[in-house]
Design a protein that fits this description.
The chain has helices spanning 2-34, 64-85, 89-97, 109-136, 139-142, 144-169, 174-197, 212-245, 260-284, 289-314, 321-346. The chain is built from eleven helices and no strands. The protein is globular. It has two domains: 1-198, no CATH class; 203-358. Helix 6 (144-169) packs antiparallel against helix 7 and helix 7 (174-197) packs antiparallel against helix 8 (212-245). Mean pLDDT is 85; it is low at 353-358. Helices cover 72% and strands 0% of the residues. By secondary structure, the protein is mainly α.
Length: 358
């Protein structure tokens, strides 16, 4: 029993650390976007052909813009052909037709190192998830879902790394950026699931009856938050286009020039606030301190999101608020998913052999 307790605690510690690291990566990724550093390194996995990026223009060949543009175009052509062969002709055509692949970003040491730090954090997460897989081996017989959940997380991180290379090679093609963000949320869900599952026996039997309406509300709120984060990513992409067209001038006019996504995003936030307030009162009726702590945290995050939204809307989209807005949006998703998982196990009856329960 002592050994099992050690294994469980060790797995939980590495899982929580990995989740925290993913949020750090999301924050750093937001800083990359808000500072326009996404193409700070024009190649992948190296940066300007080196594992340690340059610090000055003198370290690069005089024709570096043409060299890296040509390399990116060749890579995109290879990717496009593969996508066409497996039936994604429309996506391939967007890659071929997108004008940004023919534009090379001039070297900027600050932006290069911001992007490089982003990649280093990604490597750290890969190592942490690899450790998560190693620490999940004891569960292969007693609870295979924990092991396979860890493996799925590792595979997803590898895929995210490959997708990151496509984001660079396509010069931040909007569809690639959106998919990258969506998979980051899926990764968080996998990690939260296995961390909660390893301690689920402590949650069993907290409620005599399950509430179908509460479960439906939890799923609905989670789904809307997921959609809201994705739409927010698309709004961010629209901001980038407007900023490019205006040569990063007249920031106070950017919001006026945004399309439908911005207004959908703003309107959906009102619905999200109302649903989460309803969620608070529904959870309060259960009288469970752990669930109440999570739902109060959810309301706190929403309050921070509202404040940041006001700052973005009325202070001409200041760069410091953009990554924080993204971070709190993904944190909201994570807390809601955590609440859903904890409630799912808490409403199950006490079970004498939890290791064998599906």
């Amino acid at each position: 029993m002592r050994d099992k307790s050690f294994i469980d605690k060790r797995f939980k510690r590495i899982g929580v650390l990995t989740i925290a690291s993913v949020y750090i990566l999301i924050l750093v990724g937001g800083i990359v976007r808000s500072t326009g550093s996404g193409m700070g390194c024009p190649d992948w996995p190296k940066c300007f052909g080196s594992w340690v990026p340059p610090t000055s223009l003198e370290q690069l060949p005089s024709d570096y813009l043409e060299v890296y543009k040509e390399k990116r175009i060749q890579k995109n052509e290879r990717i496009g052909r593969v996508l066409q062969e497996i039936g994604f002709a429309e996506v391939a055509q967007k890659i071929f037709a997108h004008p940004s692949q023919y534009i090379e970003t001039e070297f900027n040491a600050t932006k290069t190192w911001i992007e490089y730090v982003n990649r280093l954090v990604g490597v750290v997460i890969g190592l942490l998830i690899f450790l998560t897989v190693l620490y999940s081996f004891p569960f292969l017989k007693t609870d295979p879902k924990i092991f396979w959940g860890a493996v799925a997380s590792f595979v997803l991180v590898l895929f995210q790394g490959w997708l990151g290379s496509l984001v660079v090679s396509t010069n931040l093609l909007p569809e690639m950026v959106t998919l990258h963000m969506a998979l980051a949320l899926v990764l968080l869900a996998f990690l939260i699931y296995i961390v909660v599952r390893v301690q689920r026996e402590k949650l069993y039997g907290h409620f005599a009856l399950a509430s179908g309406s509460l479960k439906f509300l939890l799923v609905a709120v989670l789904a809307i938050t997921f959609v809201q984060v994705i739409i927010g990513t698309q709004v961010r992409e629209e901001v980038d286009l407007v900023a490019f067209d205006l040569n990063n001038q007249a920031r106070e006019t950017w919001i006026e020039q945004l399309g439908t996504s911005f207004y959908v995003h703003r309107s959906l936030s009102i619905l999200l606030v109302l649903l989460n307030v309803g969620l608070y009162f529904s959870v309060k009726k259960l009288g469970n301190p752990s669930l109440m702590m999570i739902v109060k945290s959810i309301l706190g995050v929403i309050a921070a999101e509202i404040l940041l939204g006001i700052v973005l809307a009325y202070l001409a989209l200041p760069a410091f608020a953009q990554p924080l807005h993204l971070l709190f949006g993904t944190l909201l998703f994570g807390l809601q998913f955590l609440l859903l998982m904890m409630y799912y196990y808490a409403q199950k009856p006490n079970q004498p052999t939890p290791e064998l329960v599906a």
